[in-house]
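stuck on this one:
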Amino acid sequence: MVCTGYKYAGLSDAGGGLSHPGMLARGGPVEADDSFPKLRQVVLDCTDARALAEFYRRLLGLQYRPGDEPPAADEPDELGQDWLVLRGPGGQPRLAFQQVARLPEATWPQGPSPQQLHLDLTVPTLRDLDAQHERALALGARLLQDRSDDPGEPLRVYADLAGHPFCIFVVA
């Protein structure tokens, strides 16, 4: 079976797996142009979209997409029970949150529910790593692993409010 989208890109799933001759040459040149899809945002499933959006808004200094801001205290939060988007300083979408009824928490690094995605966040210094550690914990993150004393790549791994793992590490 060949899907039109795959056919357009020169892909086929003959033999049961998607393949393309260029895929065999790992790291081969790719000339980006308007025919490629653009990554809009990363979407995180969660059982409380508003709480997780607030966590990342405060951790990363992002802003709600216009219309997604929390409602007044006495009003229902219908959007907060469905889909919310956070944007960066230039207005570009960064993270979205989709509420689901049930979500098994990742049991990283071992266990029955492996992580399917994690976010890598960087800071410039070890001092900044320590400051962001305090911020992450104050916002409700759980520390999963502490390698802040690793001379090659100081880092800490956390779980967010929904249990998604994320890392903060030093990149000089």
User: Anything to note?
Assistant: Confidence is low (pLDDT under 50) at residues 1-13. The domain at 42-99 is CATH 3.30.720 (Signal recognition particle alu RNA binding heterodimer, srp9/1). Residues 126-138 form the longest helix (13 residues).
